[in-house]
Amino acid sequence: MLTPSAPARLVVLVSGAGTNLQALLDACADPAYGAEIVAVGADRDGVEGLARAERAGVATFVHRIADFDSRAAWDAALAASVAEHAPDLVVLAGFMKLVGADFLERFGGRTLNTHPALSPAFPGMRGPADALEYGVKVTGATLFVVDAGVDTGVIVAQTTVPVEDDDTAESLHDRIKVAERSMLVDVVGRLSREGFTVDGRRVRFGA
Ligand code: GRF
C-alpha cells in the first residue's frame, strides 16, 4: 500500500526527448493535480528531457553506465541519487535502461514505467515496430509497476490506439505517445492523490 505525501513527491527518470516528462511537468503546475516533480535523472548527458527539467527549475542528476565499473555500481548510484529526493513515486518516462536489484530493493512497488505496446504483447525496445510487423489492428501503451523483468510488471493502466493501413513504426509510435502521455498524466495524478495497493497482479486505487 502506498499513501503519498500531499503533494506527492515524484522523481522522473528519462533518456531522451522527455515529452512524457513535459506532460507531467505541465500537469504538476496545477496544485490540484496533487504531485510535484522534485528531481529528474538521466542515464546520459545532453538530452532534451534534462533541458526540460532545467527550464522548469527542477533539480537534475546524470549517471552514465560507462562511468561505472559494473552495472551494479551504476544501479546503486542511481538508487542513491533518487533516494536523496525522498520520492513517493518514481516514474520511468522513456528511461531506456533496466533498473537493478539495489534500485528495486529501495523503490520496488512504487516505480512506474510506460511501455508503448499493450502488455503482455511486444515487450522490449521495439514495441511499436513489433506490433506493426505482427499485423495487429489495435495496439497502445501500458503503465506498469516496475519489476525485474522487461515490461512484465503489474499493469496499472492501458490505453488503445488503432493501427492505420499506412502506418510506419514512427507514425504509429507518434500516435501511441499522444495516448500514452494522457494516460500517464491521468493515472500518476490519481495514484498521487489517492494512493494505491498492489494485490497479486492487480492494482487498486485508494489507500
Ligand atoms: C515513450 O513512448 C516510452 O514509452 C518509450 O519511449 C518513449 C519516450 O518518449 N519507452 P519521451 O522521451 O517521453 O518523449
Oligomer: single chain
Provide the β-strand percentage band. 25-35%
Beta strands, count = 9
Q: Tell me the name of the CATH homologous superfamily.
A: Formyl transferase, N-terminal domain
CATH 2nd-level architecture: 3-Layer(aba) Sandwich
Tell me, what's the shape?
A: globular
Helix content class: 25-40%
- How are the strands of the biggest sheet laid out side by side? 3-2-1-4-5-6-7
Order of helices and strands: EHEHEHEHEHEEHEE
Query: Residue-averaged pLDDT, rounded?
Result: 97
Derived from helix and strand composition plus strand pairing, the structural class reads alpha/beta
Query: Separation of termini?
Result: 6 Å
User: According to CATH, what is the topology?
Assistant: Rossmann fold
Largest sheet: 7 strands, mixed
According to CATH, what is the class? Alpha Beta
Number of DSSP helical runs: 6
Low-confidence segments: none
Task: Provide the gyration radius in Å.
Answer: 16 Å
Say which molecules are bound, naming each kind only once. 5-O-phosphono-beta-D-ribofuranosylamine
Number of domains: 1
Summary keywords:
seven-stranded mixed beta sheet; 207 residues; 25% strand; single chain; 6 helices; Rossmann fold; binds 5-O-phosphono-beta-D-ribofuranosylamine; two-stranded antiparallel ribbon; alpha/beta
Write structural notes for this entry:
The protein has 207 residues and is α/β, with parallel strands linked by helices. It has one domain: Formyl transferase, N-terminal domain (Rossmann fold), CATH 3.40.50. Helix content is 35%, strand content 25%. The chain is built from 6 helices and 9 strands, in the order βαβαβαβαβαββαββ. The strands form 2 sheets. It has a 7-stranded mixed sheet, sandwiched between helices. Strands 8-9 form a two-stranded antiparallel sheet. Helix 1 runs parallel beside helix 6 and helix 5 (127-134) packs across helix 6. The model has no long low-confidence stretch (mean pLDDT 97). The structure holds 5-O-phosphono-beta-D-ribofuranosylamine. 5-O-phosphono-beta-D-ribofuranosylamine binds next to helix 1, strand 5 and helix 6. It catalyses: N(1)-(5-phospho-beta-D-ribosyl)glycinamide + (6R)-10-formyltetrahydrofolate = N(2)-formyl-N(1)-(5-phospho-beta-D-ribosyl)glycinamide + (6S)-5,6,7,8-tetrahydrofolate + H(+). Residues 9-188 form the Formyl transferase N-terminal domain. Keywords: Purine biosynthesis, Transferase.
